[in-house]
Known about the structure:
Elements: E1 3-11, H1 16-28, E2 32-37, E3 41-43, E4 55-64, H2 68-81, E5 97-103, E6 108-109, E7 114-115, H3 124-133, H4 137-140, E8 150-151, H5 160-168, E9 174-176, E10 180-181, H6 189-196, E11 203-209, H7 213-223, E12 230-235, H8 240-244, H9 255-268, E13 274-279, H10 292-296, E14 305-309, H11 322-335, E15 340-343, H12 349-359, E16 363-366, H13 376-381, H14 390-406, H15 413-424, H16 431-439
Parallel strand pairs: 8-16, 9-11, 10-11, 11-12, 12-13, 13-14, 14-15, 15-16
Antiparallel strand pairs: 1-4, 1-5, 2-4, 3-4, 6-7
Amino acid sequence: MKRKIFLALGGNIGDVPSVFDRALKYLSDNGVSILKRSSCAVTTPEDCPPGTPDFYNSAVLAETELEAEDLLKLTQKTEVLCGRPADHGFHESRTLDIDIIYMEDVRYYTGHLQIPHPRAAARDFVMRFLLELDADAYSKVQPLKMLTPCPGPMEGVMTPALIKTAVEEKVCSEFVTPFLRISEHIPKEKEIRKFLEPYKNNRVTLQLMGNSPSLLAESAAMAMKFDIAGINLNFGCPSGQVLRHQSGGAMLKNPPLMREICRAIRNRCPELVLSAKIRMGFDSEKECENWLGDWSSSNDDAPDFFILHSRSVSENYQPLPESEHISRSKKVVKLVSQPVMLNGDIGDVKTAVERMQKTGGVSFMSARMWLKDPYIFRNFENGIFEPSSPDERIRFYKLVLENAQKSGLPYNNGKQIELSQLMFAPRNPFFAELCRKGKN
Length: 440
């Protein structure tokens, strides 16, 4: 499929205009058809050290059938061929810099590539050239409000020791907390501070669960006193206890109430990044067709993005073939105008990449399957498709137990067995020994 793209070019070493010509020729020979070039002009450096030489900047409107990651590899190869070292600093002078600013119908968000470019709209040295190519450029390059790939929040599993280990090991760029239940009162500041403590110095989205629009709105306002990335509403948890309290996945029976909650939070916290974690429906994966598109098109109560678990609540966690995850996720992506973060049975980088490419999802989350490869998100951001080694996983497991011991809340045998089963089943190197200890 051919897509229109915007590329921004910059450089401040050597004969930059000639380098631009050479770069565009190479791109043209390798799957990028240049449709229109902007002017080329000298601009003042921004976000660069004092004394940095002025830049030449330009932009092109082009067309390509390449996928986002393949286009990135091509632009990076072009930079190297034009004299920019592959290993370079962010603010260094350079012979050539090529940024992917926009891809038609593509919304993509990872640690190393974000489309549309997250800072383009605020940069005059980009926009002045894009506007020469397209008078509607500003609307096309508005940045996504989105999460980078991260662990799914797991109530009871994501202990402070597990979170601390994940933070120390830098397994991802940001986190979502397990749900903070809002049932009868607005949490006090000290409650939220304690809840967020394991994530300190990291971007974190606070997940709330409840069914009261007013309480959830005031709780979100209280949470905004802290340095959080946003609020996520849990409308998908299938736990029996949660469902009995008419929260989590039970909310899928009442789409108007989900929307009322979002509207209340929007009215109370208009600048807040708000997301909703949903399933396909309560009893059937087809239920979302009845309400999701209308919700997405609303101006006053739609979230900034959806996190989709591609099962119904009644399906709980029963196995689904990957083809079914893809067809269901693709349906939701087509129903909504917001970005969609994919969730459900994603346990390796290959599955994550293929599901995003085949569905149009822009990011992914992995919960219990994350524990079978704690470094999946870091590998994804670095373009590593091989799973982490058994030694790396065993090391992570032991670090969790050490952090639990240091915290004064050591894992008992039952908790150790639970974690080891989540991480290593069916080939669990610790299970027999832990069971033996439990009997003694």
